[in-house]
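idk why but the lab printer keeps eating my pages so im just putting this in chat instead. protein + beta-D-mannopyranose:
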Amino acid sequence: MIDIQDLSGTWNLRGTDVDLPAEVPGCVHTDLLAAGRIPDPFFGDNEHAVAWVGRQDWTYQRDLTWDGPAHDRIDLVFDGLDTVARVELGGRVLGETRNMHRSYRFDVTSQLGTAAADRDPADATAGASLPLSVYLTSAYTEAARVEALVGPKPNCYPEPFPFVRKMACSFGWDWGPTLVTAGIWRPVRLEGWSTARLATVRPLATYRDGGGDLDLTVDVERTRDRALRAQVLLDGRELTVVDVPADQTSLRARIPVDGIAAWSPRGYGPPALYELTVVLLDGDQELDRWRRHTGFRTVTIDRGADDAGTRFVIEVNGEPVLAKGVNWIPDDIFPSRMTRARYEKRLREAVAAGVNLVRVWGGGIYEDRAFYELCDELGLLVWQDFLFACACYPEDEPIFSEVVAEARENVTRLSPHPSLITWNGNNENLWLHDAMNWAAEPGGGESWGEKYYLQTLPAIVAELDPTRPYQAGSPWSGSWEHAPNSPDHQTFHSWEVWNREDYGNYRDSAPRFVSEFGWQAPPAWTTLRDAVSDDPMLPDSPGVLHHQKAEDGNGKLARGLEPHFPAPASTEAWHYLTQLNQVRAIRTGVEHWRSHWPHTAGTILWQLNDLWPVTSWAAIDGAGRYKPLYFALRDVHADRALTIQPRDGRLVVAVLNDHPEPWTGSLSVESRDSSGTLLHIGAEEVEVAPRSVTLVPINGGDVLVATLDGRRALWFAADHHLGDPDLTVTASSVPGGLDVHVNAAGLARDILLQADRIHPDAVTDQGFVTLLPGESTTLHVRAPIDLDPRSVKDPWVLTDLASVLRENRPS
Ligand code: BMA
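predcted complex ->
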């Protein structure tokens, strides 16, 4: 068996004028924070005050002794080093690294190999502890060295991330701070082993009717040329035993497996998982054991041509899947702080918002195993970018070999996860090279990354994992024949609308697959308030502006409001109206695109999460609080939903049935005047086939209400002239919260309860709610402590659009 000595825990961190205890796994910033040596980088503009951290060199140290039994080999294994490191043991250089996205294994047998039990107590040197030092050079220094070698490269951002294989967004992004980390960011351990170990296990599991196929490749590292065997078990049942002759270090087995269930994405059946075990045996002696859950499913992406262009339809087990996706950025700017519990919380929140696909965006990381295991369990599809974003990337050494090594390692590492359905070459690099004419800029004409996306990476995926489709980029039209961001061909990023237009323009096109689109809003009030010291806090006061990283972000927010609302006269009104506009924009986009299924085969919202308090496109803010958008996602992603859409010069009710059963019933359509008074009601029977959309033409009106089977859609011809909604609000205490009952005598649009204004940890269960005259709703507010019902009367805790507009006078 392999003996493992975990090296997590307290190390020592040194830098100029710094000598501190350090936590491993971790990073310099979190150690300095814990020691009180830097201020909270998320507060105010402290980001600037801590910028020096990323520009320094650092050393992590501890003493090392092998405490385990005697072995042929003792290896020092780092699951991740961030990033430019020289590792020394007892003054001997074990190796140098320059890639955050790889793991490293160093043979330290000659130094640590004497087993504790075998040590001669008289020999003071045997088994003595040796100092282990990890010298980390600033990523800026390395990037400058590489840039000097390969020349400049065009980039959307001012920082040098294309020159070092490190999480790009730690250099700042249009939603993130520049906090350039260094550290031992993933677990580190000593492994003692003898004869042989399982170096890599690469299972490719696919599904066919009634059964599966397991294509298993195992690489073995040896110290002795002995004939070995590999036993393969599924849920404890032996599938096969494969001989590994003495002169071989690799084996491959293709194993048909009968009587298993398919792994299915959410909404298509259970995500069946099986425990796959590989045991490496020397005679009857177990040398090593590898164990993971895997699932059997077959994935294709239909990228065939049709009259409209080129499709992009994800198919799992032969069934087309409407992608209801979100883009995922690293959930913490210090990713070593992530835990399984945090991943689980966030991914369950995605599920609760009706999401079935998560795209791991290319400016972040290949996530931790826990992330993919949770997606496997939750039936979430994962679209994984290779880590390239928004820049030209050098194809020269020393970057090229790092990219190859990193891609091979991660394609292998993630191969067991059925949730992972596609590898994508990059984020926006092919598009931007074309659209920004980067070829004309220094360093953009050649060696700019195209070779990775069109040759290197697809070849690696084809070799190591032909079961998963590869795409060259997002967006990408399939070839240079069409513009990379063509709405008619494969994937499309819809950014013109947010950047320059009114959100109604989402309706102007029906792209084949929208893999990014988004609309900004500030975070929850408390999140913003806690992040700044501005007094007064204004949309453009310095702290608030520091927490808005997008180019002209506040200008775009303001221009986005103009067609719909008067200019906000207070920060509170700005906050309410911009959050409302975000919801309306995203609803407009998703409902329109869903109504075009399967022509438009999915959407991936930019973005689910944030990694610090910031005005951004996210649905869940950097403190983990829900923006109203979060709740709207649940509605627009519902398997069965209605939406009223303008189509070909008139209105239709689009009946959206993303469900395996037909949806039948009586669709009622009410026409009401602008005060909400009922004028006319009509009904017709509808039958909507499984996984399809039916469009029912209707007549126009000031206010339209379509209802089917408890689902409804509302349509308002205008926002203005809202009368008094005449709300009656009754809050009652319940253990750990309040139930807030709201009754509307008149038409009440966009009632919003901001739970964080009652208590920073309080949450509600609804976003914006619109009530017709006479209707009621109950909002459930939950908090870690009991709440005072009178708090709902506090300013801005519970409000609605008419009240906001009425009070929207300069204060
Ligand atoms: C796209 C993304 C991100 C960016 C977002 C918002 O460019 O891929 O790089 O944060 O839009 O601008």
